[in-house]
Design a protein that fits this description.
The complex is a heterodimer. By secondary structure, chain A is mainly alpha-helical. Chain A has helices at about 10-15, 25, 30-50, 60-75, 85-95, 105-135, 170-190, 210; one strand at about 55. The N and C termini of chain A lie far apart (about 150 Å). Chain B has a domain at about 1-95: Orthogonal Bundle (Rna Polymerase Sigma Factor, Chain: A). The chains are: A mainly alpha, B mainly alpha. At the A-B interface, helix 1, helix 3, strand 1 and helix 4 of A face helix 2, helix 3, strand 1, helix 6 and helix 7 of B. Strand 1 (about 55) of chain A pairs antiparallel with strand 1 of chain B.
Chain lengths: ~210, ~200
Amino acid sequence: MHNCKATKTILIELAAGDANQLPGEIENCAGCREEFASLRNALRAADTAIDLAQPAEAFWPGYHERLRQRLQNSQTTGGWLPPRISMLRWFRKVLTTSIRVPVPAALAFVVLLVFSIFFAMQTRRASGAGSILTPPSIVTKTVEVPVVRDRVVTRVVYRIIQRPSRDVSADLAGARDFRQTEPAAVTAQGLEGFKPANEAKVTIINGSYHDDK
Amino acid sequence: MTENEAQLIKRAQTPDAEAFCQLAGRYERRIYSLALHYCHDPQDAEDLSQEVWLKAYQAIGTFRQESGFYTWIRRITINCFLNRQRSSFFRWRKLAEPLTGDYVDSAKLTLQVPSVEASLNNRILFAKVMRALAQLTPRQRLIFLLKHHEGMTYEEIAATLGCSTGTAKKAVARALTKLREELNVELPPGECVPCAAGEF
């Protein structure tokens, strides 16, 4: 059964190609015939527009003269050479240059790269594991270690604890009375029964510490 | 008396700039036109087309006349286009800008039509076609131009651009779709190009 939507892509190809005759199935469908004619007309319009557009005749002598001049300049300079590119442009060109690589070759390269990385990691891991599994050699050695001994010093400290008086005013009053009365009492007690001696023994030491030497 | 192409090529290979200029004079309009529709800018088109001729002049010694001279120069042209597209992609951003009818004036193009009315219609048609082509990528536009301006087959395009024939067909199909979208306008009956999609 004819399907106009399905034949649309075929019509585009036919219109874009050089086919003037449509296949029988499409030829019998009025819609497809109109579509085909529409496509051909659009294409013809484009061709006409492209062909019609030309620079004015006055343009061509100048164009040809400029071309002749450039050709002669290139001949005098020993052939046309591309303009020298700066380092920056060259670097940019190197960075942005692309090359065509077939997809199978690119895939093979990627697979090879992945496998090489994988095997490298495996090898490294295996060598690391081997070093762990090897029994370590035990060496017994006596080492003198200086031990710091702490010295315990016991010291007895006596402290005089002065207890604060409860009543400060009473203490002050008491202290004042003691100052007034105590010297008399001390004098009385100290000189009581004191009898001065009749003779005094005096020892005179001649010389000084310089003479002793 | 004009020399034939083979003699001119032999002279140009000596090298003879005058002989090469005569050769260039035969094909410079086609190359410029191709460059113009590819670049959408007259100044770029002139630079690009002259670069093509300079490269051809440099390489004329390697031309063995196994193919036609135009086929050879077209191959150089395509390579120049692709190299330019790769090297200075910033410059090509303006191709994505929407084109207006002023493009025809800025390009200093003369539309090869007799009457003023027809000229106006063709100016509109030209602007619409250019707007449709501007919506394509430069590569798609190049494929479309090679197919319908140069008459190359899909196989030749694929071999030249290094892509598959399917890619070339898709690019042409996309160009056709854009053209149909843009050319949704009726031309006067006298015009041989009916633009409206589906109208006769």
